[in-house]
Amino acid sequence: MDASQRKPVFYPMPSAGTRTRRVWEIADAVTEETGARAERKEVVRRFVAENGNPNTANTQYQHWKNAYDARGQQREQRASSAPSGRAGDVGAHPLKVGSDGRVVIPQDMRAAMVLGEDGHVTARVVRGELRLISRPAAIERTQAETAALKQPGESVVDAFLAERRAMWGEE
Fold first, then answer.
1. Collapsing DSSP states into helix, strand and coil, what is residue 51?
2. 3-state helix, strand, coil in the chain (%, to 5)
3. Torsion of CA 64, 67, 68, 70, to 10 degrees
4. Coil, strand or helix: which one is 45?
5. Backbone phi, then psi, for 144, in 5-degree steps?
6. Secondary structure letter of residue 83 according to DSSP
7. Model's pTM, two decimal places?
8. Lower CB density within 10 Å: C or N end of the chain?
9. Cα 95 to Cα 84: distance, rounded to the nearest angstrom
């Protein structure tokens, strides 16, 4: 914390190719693998396995965690202000699995999942954690991930067709 202003201090991502940056990369990889924020113990274990200094790992993990949490808060603010029809976030709710395996998902969670009237979801279990995603949420996630690959105003379809026409010798 910056004592004069009582604001947390966020360190920028370390330079590429440095040992400190490697800790951030490990933390990002663990987060991607588990689907949840990386645990300090796992990040330190992996960094030490690469002959890294555990003190460096602990310090850089804390800097990474502060930055990760700040990004998460920004995402939560954007999601909470997201218009309806967009995937959002809802806090944890205790749910009960019935003897027949059924789980009742509360309305606020269904709304955040953008769960349609059909109720179709894709389910998977990752390290004992059940994950559900609705079709609209999956499409939204895919569009967000691929948006960076397309230039504004660029028509991928037109470029593809032009390439094929050139290959076939058509106008």
1. coil
2. 50, 10, 40
3. 160
4. helix
5. -65, -40
6. P
7. 0.44
8. C
9. 24
38 C-beta neighbours (distance < 10 Å), count: 22
First to last CA, the chain: 64
pLDDT at 83: 44
Residues 88 and 82: beta-carbon distance below 8 Å: yes
Taking the C-alpha atoms of residue 12 and residue 16, their distance in angstroms, rounded to an integer, is 12
pLDDT at position 5 over 70: no
Q: Which residue in the block uniquely carries the two structure tokens 């944890």?
A: 92
Residue 81's pLDDT is what?
A: 47
Contacts 24+ apart (CB under 8 A), 81-90: 84/111, 85/114, 85/136, 86/114, 86/140, 87/112, 87/113, 87/114, 87/136, 87/137, 87/140, 87/141, 88/112
Alpha-carbon gap, residue 149 to 24, rounded angstroms: 24
Cα dist from 41 to 28, 57, 127, 167, whole Å: 14, 10, 17, 54
